[in-house]
Give the backbone structure.
Amino acid sequence: MQAIIEVAGKQYRVQPSERHVVPKLPVEVGNTIEFRTVLATIEGDSICVGTPYRNAIVTATVRAHGKADKVLVFKKKRRKGYKKLRGHRQQYTEIEITGITVND
């Protein structure tokens, strides 16, 4: 069984025992989290789409928190002596999907 979930405005296609990197979630490492924003479920050849969400729950375990590679933002205007260099590292959470439950 697979499901399409929405996390922080992004959609992920998940199935049990898969690991995904999502934007940082306010959950400690080792805890479980439930995603109730399930957009669709897929089982074999049948696809059930919600309007807007399905009555299903996807559970996951938080494996780690971290920071992605640095992203540099460089701005320059030629012949003006204007240069700016800024950068940041986006924080993320690594989750492992433990189960998909459909409540129909």
